[in-house]
Amino acid sequence: MEVLSYLLLGLVQGLTEFLPVSSSGHLTLGQAILGLREEDLTFTVLVHAATALSTVVVFRDDILGLGRDVFSSREAGAKARRYTGLLLLSAIPAAVLGLSFKDAIEALATPKFVGAMLCVTALVLLLSQRAKGGNHPLGGGRALGIGLAQACAILPGISRSGSTIGAALMLGVSREEAAKFSFLMALIPIGGATLLTMKDLMEQPAAEVSGPWLGYAAGTLAAFASGWAACTWMIRLVKRSNLAGFGAYCLVAGILALIFG
Predict the structure, then answer these.
(1) Contact assessment for residue 189 and residue 150, using Cβ atoms and an 8 Å cutoff
(2) How many CA atoms lie less than 13 Å away from 88 in the CB half-sphere?
(3) What letters, b where the CB count within 10 A reaches 16 and e where it falls short, cover 30-65?
């Protein structure tokens, strides 16, 4: 039964990391429903690394292209350095907020708080659909604005992808570029958070690090597979449709969490 629980949590992490419904919020609710220990650093590291890897696989051509061109002296090199700089710029707000208020934010991960923030996510998604996007270039100001939206998503229950894609659309970025930039920029905070969690994990006594490794393996594989599928699907969805349905789902889930949390 415990293996099945971790498998389900891995599926939830992979799907909700890319779907605009908040992965941190759903993990908090999932752990409460399944009765698992609230803080499992080993499992957190594994599933976040798995979802980061799924992003790398989906965007492997873009990432390899940036890595190949960033040191080039040609026009392609200038574009790659500019785009890489925008990705790094977008990560600054989340890094400042996360490092400054890490413990306080972790203390907010309760079902009722998650429920309230899911309602906020619903509002963001529904409002963002009024924006049709555009063809404005992705410059420093827009990248920083999208980064501020990502920083807000550190709060459990606020969707990272929903906030960043919604912010990009409201800033006039095209739907295709909004999805691509949102998922690529996620690699930096996910990677940073994973490293910080690994640091906390290494500081624990060895006896506390042990866990249900079969469950961990099942959850990690589930997170990678579902993350790959969700990321691919979300890119297509953003291009041709809107996110209002996810907004309705977050509103219902948020209200239920507030009532029963």
Answers:
(1) yes
(2) 6
(3) bbbeeebeeebbbbbbbbbbbbbbbbeebbeeeeee
| Count of the separate structural domains present in the chain | 1
Q: Tell me 47's DSSP state.
A: H
- What average pLDDT does the chain have? 86
* Mean pLDDT across 26-43: 70
Mean pLDDT of 158-167: 91
Rounded Cα distance, 52 and 186, in Å: 8
| 22 neighbors 32 (Cβ within 8 angstroms) | no
Domain interval for residue 219:
2-260
What pTM value is reported for the model?
A: 0.85
Q: Does residue 44 surpass a pLDDT of 90?
A: no
**Beta-carbon contacts of residue 118 (< 8 Å; ≥ 6 apart):** 21, 22, 25, 157, 250, 251, 253, 254, 257
Cβ(86)–Cβ(143) below 8 Å: yes
| C-alpha to C-alpha distances, 60 to 19, 158, 184, nearest whole angstrom | 20, 27, 10
| Nearest of 18, 237, 249, 247 to residue 129 by alpha carbon | 247
The single-letter DSSP state of residue 204 is S
- pLDDT number for residue 258: 93
The pLDDT assigned to 39 comes to 58
pLDDT band at 35 (very low <50, low <70, confident <90, very high): low
Do the beta carbons of residue 6 and residue 216 sit within 8 Å?
Answer: yes
Q: With beta carbons less than 8 A apart as the criterion, state whether 51 and 223 touch.
A: yes
The tally of CA atoms less than 13 A away on the side-chain side of residue 142 is 22
Provide Rg for the chain, Cα atoms: 18
